[in-house]
Amino acid sequence: MKKKLLITVGAGASLDFGLPSVNAIGELFDRCACKSHSLADNPGSNLYRHCRNAIDQYYAGAPKPALRKWANFEEVLYQLNLLIPYLSDPYKLHGSNALLLANCLPDVRFLGRQRRAVDAEVMSSLTGTLMSELANHFIDHCDTVRRTKTNEIADLRKFLTTLQAEFEIGIITLNYDNLFTQAMPELHTGFDKAGTFAPMSVLSRSDWNFIYHLHGSVHFAMTDASHEMHSISWVDTPSKGQAVDPRGRSSQNSMEGTSYPMSTLVAGYGKTQQILRQPFRTYFSQVNRLVHEADSLLFLGYGFGDLHLNAAFSEVRDRHRPVVVVDWAANGQDPLQFRDDVWANNLFETLPGNAYSMGSAGNDFPAYLRELRAARELEVSNDPNYPLAVWYNGMLEACRHPQKILEHLK
């Protein structure tokens, strides 16, 4: 029997194919909010930008420059959702209002029309509008990729086929795009031919060769099923419209009082609450089992920033197995022995490893990333107890040199 390879796909794996970056989504949200929630006394700005800038201004006061944070769209989206119960609680349902108070927010031109104070309805409208725009944006981009990136998709399929020759592969993707589905449409998703999610097809599955979209997909749509009007189905051809629009739907609520838009996508912080819906709940329930079953781990463009997933991977730190991380770095990036950033710290908090054993193959001294990138080689651990290797040439170059990746996974 073949060994099993668990592949975790993050946002960095999609950038080479033209999908938007985290910063680009933040800019998209800013443009969208200018149309729907501009500030009443400053029409050139908007409620999203005002809150993002307020958070960044707070972070600017960090006592140590190295600790200074910057708000990205996921954090801002979460903070907006977090504010909702503090802006309006007419039925006295949220006990936190006895202890906490939201800062005063500027009035907006609600939906570009009347002046409104920001209350729960206005803020919920903003987060729903942003989530709707996010779904539509990725649907458009994936259609563009389908038409313009056929060679790159073919490279991705060749990469996956090469891995399949040695392993049974399983993919858990955190991305909304369908790059891997375009490359290998035969992978099991948990949805049947009619587009209905079948939990037992995931829970009882012993075969691998699957792809599970832990945070949603452009193929997800909320159809008016008789038992649950917001249930998610699979559509072969992604399309914009009401089926991917959270506006006008009930919110997804939590015991803590935070509410989230009822969307086909999981976005922002608070993911552990948002994944309580199907199919996310079933997918995530399988992650622990998959990590334990895997003989090798491959991370593609994953930033190790999702702590709920990191917890599952770190649970088996005492069972050392080959790990390859596909990332991108500039020639001047420090090697892992000298890095002290969030990505590197999260990497070694999640996976077994020793930064001081990392170098080029057969050499204990730190590697020069410029030389590794030029030779299409990986920074590797020279401690046999920690079989870790990191590729710095990005996703597409990895697809075009699959044997370079494969040799460190066996």
Count of distinct strands: 16
Q: Supply the CATH superfamily name of the largest domain.
A: TPP-binding domain
Strand neighbour order, sheet with most strands: 7-6-1-12-13-16-15-14
Cα-atom radius of gyration: 22 Å
Task: Please give the CATH class of the largest domain.
Answer: Alpha Beta
Low-confidence stretches: none
Mean pLDDT, all residues: 93
Silhouette: globular
Number of helices: 14
Q: Beta-strand percentage?
A: 5-15%
Sheet with the most strands, sense and barrel status: 8 strands, mixed
Terminal Cα span? 14 Å
Task: Output the helix-strand order.
Answer: EHEEHHEEHHEHHEEEEEHHEHEHEHEEHH
CATH architecture of the largest domain: 3-Layer(aba) Sandwich
Q: How would you classify the helix and strand content by structural class?
A: alpha/beta
